[in-house]
Design brief:
Elements lengths: L5 H10 L5 H43 L4 E2 L3 H6 L2 H4 L3 E8 L5 E7 L2 E12 L4 E9 L18 E9 L4 E2 L2 E2 L12 H7 L5 E8 L22 H27 L1
Parallel strand pairs: 1-2, 5-9
Antiparallel strand pairs: 2-4, 2-6, 3-4, 4-5, 6-9, 7-8
Length: 253
């Protein structure tokens, strides 16, 4: 009869060492917290899913509708922003081309700038109009003189809400003419505009208009992965619940 080495016996005893009651309770608590946390995240994603579906439906209905008169500043302030966003509107008046603002942009045409130009309407108020995209080599107005619109004109476009503050991790710096978002209030203040509307308009691409600025580039396609995210969180909640049950059953034994 041969005896086993002490080392092998020690390893086997270690492998089958019972888990303490305190460790089981901690593991059970962790699983319960996981169930609550993952369920909450799943419910949140379901809410986001319905919000996104409603947004897509509203945008689709509005971008294909006939244009209506752009709201006055007073009318815009009195209605819910969700009811005005992406509405197709029409404007008549003239541009203040010497007060344009370039806002950094990334579009399907590449990186460059949005050209936001104040537009004085025939109704007496001012709207910032995003005339469209220009690449870096066209940022100077003289490099795109053919696209400058002088005198009375009319346009259509989509009403957009102000983007205050700046872009991701980059704040607008009016003093150095660095703009990362279309912040209506800040741009209006920097350009000395009074009586401006609290929104801006993404102009459509004018018929027969070639060159820059290139309008009509508003993104109206929205990613919608919330259902996948919700199912993932709920699956993790179920796994945590199963883990909690197994720990509780073992503790009860």
């Amino acid at each position: 009869m041969t005896s086993r080495p002490d080392g092998a016996l020690g390893e086997r005893e270690t492998e089958h060492a019972p888990v303490s009651g305190g460790a089981r309770i901690a593991l059970l608590a962790l699983c319960v917290v996981g169930v609550a946390l993952f369920t909450g995240l799943g419910v949140w994603q379901v809410k986001r899913l319905f919000w996104k579906l409603d947004l897509i439906a509203r945008v689709e209905a509005r971008i294909h509708a006939d244009p209506v008169a752009a709201p006055t500043p007073e009318a815009f302030a009195a209605e819910a922003a969700s009811e005005a966003e992406y509405r197709r509107v029409g404007l008549s008046g003239h541009f203040l081309n010497d007060r344009e603002t370039l806002v950094q942009a990334v579009t399907e045409l590449g990186g460059g700038f949005w050209v936001l130009t104040p537009f004085v309407t025939t109704r007496g108020f001012i709207v910032l109009v995003n005339r469209g995209f220009v690449p870096p080599e066209k940022r100077a107005p003289e490099s795109r003189a053919a696209g400058t619109i002088e005198g009375p004109t009319s346009l259509t476009g989509l009403l957009r809400l102000s983007e205050p503050g700046g872009g991701f991790l980059r704040r607008n710096d009016p003093g150095h003419e660095r703009w990362y978002s279309r912040d209506v209030a800040a741009i209006s203040a920097a350009r000395g505009l009074d009586g401006g509307a609290g929104y801006f308009v993404d102009a459509d691409r004018a018929a027969g208009m070639a060159g820059f600025p290139a309008g009509g580039l508003t993104v109206t396609r929205f990613s919608n992965n919330h259902l996948v995210y919700a199912l993932t969180w709920f699956a993790l909640a179920v796994m945590s619940a199963v883990g909690a049950y197994l720990v509780w059953r073992k503790r009860a034994r």
